[in-house]
Write a structure and sequence with these properties.
UDP-N-acetylmuramoyl-L-alanine:D-glutamate ligase, 9 helices, 32% helix, 23% strand, four-stranded mixed beta sheet, six-stranded parallel beta sheet, 2 domains, transferase, alpha/beta, 319 residues, ATP-binding
Amino acid sequence: MILTVTPNPSLDRTYEVPALRRGGLLRAEGDRVEPGGKGVNVARAVAAGGGATTAVLPLGGAEGALLARLLDGRGIDVVGVELAGSTRVNVTLVEPDGLLTKVNAPGPTLSPAEADALLETVRARSADAEWIACCGSLPRGLGPAWYAELVARAHPAGARIALDTSGQALVAALAHRPDVVKPNVDELAETVGRPLRTVGDAADAARELRARGAGAVLASLGADGQLLVEAEGTYWGHAPVAAVRSDVGAGDASLAGFLAAGGRGPGALAAAVAHGAAAVGLPGSAMPTAADLAPSAVVTTADVPVDRPLTAGQGGGTT
């Protein structure tokens, strides 16, 4: 079972608009509401693939109640920590050419008691999990060391921990030795404090994160594939994508595929690449099912193309 932790979940409302005009009246041609947040997306991807998953998240107000119902309807076991504030609502405007304009709300401020209740809920549930995926930005009220404290409390139960965050929160958690960290190339560059221009540069940066405490590093390189750097070796994976419809949640789908496939070795990397490639071909933040995957199109190799230049402007980030 994969337990996911999303400290700052959201309801994601998407409007399809004919064109984005500042100061004008926009009439949406379609709209939808979906569960949001990186850990929530991981849970959705695991459930879409037929796996067992539990989502731990703070929930508040009518927005939190709706988020819980949406996740329950997708076969996800929801364990909510009640908040005095309301779950945030993010807004995305989609133009016909696929260009996205996003407004991410800051989310509620968690009290010290709510922050500790969230940590204790994860600890209490960790004994039943094979993996704990801790993902996304930290809401107001949670300091940069919150993920580090989560790793320290949950690890003794025996679950392996995958961490997908950035900045000071990632740096602080490394000392507590998460089993896997999953930065994108921009987050990887930020953590080591230097630009990364080639796949080899990214591999060297990932090794530095391992030296600082990460058990393994699964790095998303955008159009340039994915890297896995672990004790057994360094692997690179890439899959062709016929058409990109949306990259929202693609990294989260990759992490779900990686963990569901065991979270170790080139086979798990192949699953991560297949899930990410399938996700970018789907609309919005839709998560791929088994029918969407094309594992035969995935190439994984220990012969890492170290001189391959990285595409500029990878984008992405922790939401």
